[in-house]
Amino acid sequence: MDVTYDATKRELSTDQGTIRYHEAGDPSAPPLVLLHGSGPGVTGWRNYRGNLGFFAQTHHCYVIEFPGFGVSDPVEGHPVLTAGSSVIRFMDALDIESAPMIGNSMGGVVGVNLAIKKPDRVDKLVTIGGVGPNVFSPSPSEGLRLLQEFTDEPDRDKLVRWLSAMVYDRTLVTEELIEERWQAAIHPDAQKTAQMMYGSAAFEMQQQFLAASDTPPYWSMMHKVACPTLLTWGRDDRVSPPDMAMVPMRLIPEAELHVFPKCGHWVMIEAKEEFESAVRAFLLR
After folding, report:
1. Coiled-coil intervals in this record (predicted)?
2. Is domain 5-136+218-284 annotated with CATH 3.40.50.720?
């Protein structure tokens, strides 16, 4: 099976621009939708390129590139909301009635929101950090503060500090990774999305909105997630510390929690084999 970038890349034209994605696996196998996270230089391919070949052995995999991150065409609106609508638009276009989903960080939040609002579209859900509120740890976390500093005034040193906070093993932050992320992070679409999500001004506006709003936060609605859910977490996650898992673990009726030692925010990369084994068992159960 050829799961290289060029062999798996695809394009889908929609009424809101082009959605780009990666596809691998037997078309007759059950579908699996993979949702990427956020942060400088992120793409779905970079999140899951190391796992795609594994999951494509049992599933027909789709790695969606969310609008506004420099790959798919941008659309107006908040990135988390436009990501969710792009998933439904994508599934409708390819006649995917429902599918299990794997969501990394922001992608997990997107998956939770879809499971709440469109429960018939999400069979099972796997999250990788990122979902729920900080219970004991400071908010924003160390990793999010470093992300905010980079977003306000991007430079390579700030990018390296943020990348180092993403992992337990800092040898994973190679010069190749730094250069790859830096080139993608300075894309105008990616910078605009980052400012909307993590810039200091946007963060302050979000806090004021939450204080004045009667709308409950998404995590308080997680009791409505009806599908079986596997919460995966790095024990040493400095972006979304593992105390955040307490709320989704309690509220989601069919939630399981798997914590990986000596592992940061990128569980699917840093604990690759262990993560893949746990997720495959959950999906095939």
Report:
1. none
2. no
